[in-house]
Design brief:
With 203 residues, this protein is of the alpha+beta class. The chain has seven helices and six strands, in the order ααβααβββαβαβα. The protein has one domain: NADH Oxidase. α3 runs antiparallel to α6.
């Protein structure tokens, strides 16, 4: 399945092609990535930066056809289950929340960096990742014996692009709509929150 050009970022300033082309599909091909590809993705995640090199991330991963995949699926919200039934790889991203008995404030932040590294390695390998907040931490804890001090934070889908026509009707339009972002003037501030930091035109 060719990359849909309407999903390419129409960015205010030039960005790397791998970033411009990345998006979060819901339509995935049924064929799973190879084990070597998955190993590269999680190796990339493992080399993300983290506070004090604490590496406060863990992942549960299931490939369609194994006995982990349906358990991950069962931890998702019904809305996510509706489109994830055809996804070849499903996983749960787990953040360390306690260290030495104290709250670890950067755990979820560093987990996000690890998933970002994984996402961009996937893009380089011709794969796509869709991250989901719609996962039950309680169900995941029970299903995978996640210990205290760790929490299921998000779920994710990995695979090659599939046919949007296979999606539930209410998701097809979203799958094919252009990507948008608010302007930098509403995101990057200078002297105070809400006061835009100016950038030169055409930088």
């Amino acid at each position: 399945m060719a990359h849909p050009e309407q999903k390419r970022a129409d960015a205010e300033y030039p960005i790397a092609d791998v970033l411009a082309g990345r998006f979060s599909p819901r339509a995935f091909a049924s064929e799973p990535p190879s084990e070597a590809q998955l190993a590269r993705l999680f190796t990339a995640a493992s080399w993300a930066p983290s506070a004090g090199n604490g590496q406060p991330w863990r992942f549960v991963v299931g490939v369609r056809g194994d006995d982990v995949w349906p358990v991950v699926l069962g931890c998702l919200t019904e809305r996510n289950q509706a489109w994830c039934r055809n996804v070849p790889v499903l996983g749960i991203a787990i953040a360390q929340t306690l260290r030495d008995g104290k709250p670890l404030r950067t755990g979820a932040y560093d987990l996000g960096q690890a998933l970002a590294h994984l996402t961009f390695q996937a893009a380089i390998d011709g794969l796509y990742v869709h991250q989901m907040a719609g996962v039950s931490p309680e169900a995941a804890r029970e299903a995978f014996a996640i210990p205290d001090g760790f929490e299921a934070w998000t779920a994710f889908a990995i695979g090659a692009l599939g046919d949007p026509e296979a999606l539930p009707e209410d998701l097809r339009a979203r799958e094919q709509a252009p990507r948008t972002r608010r302007p930098l003037a509403e995101t990057v501030f200078g002297h105070r929150f809400g006061e835009p930091r100016p950038f030169p035109p055409g930088a």
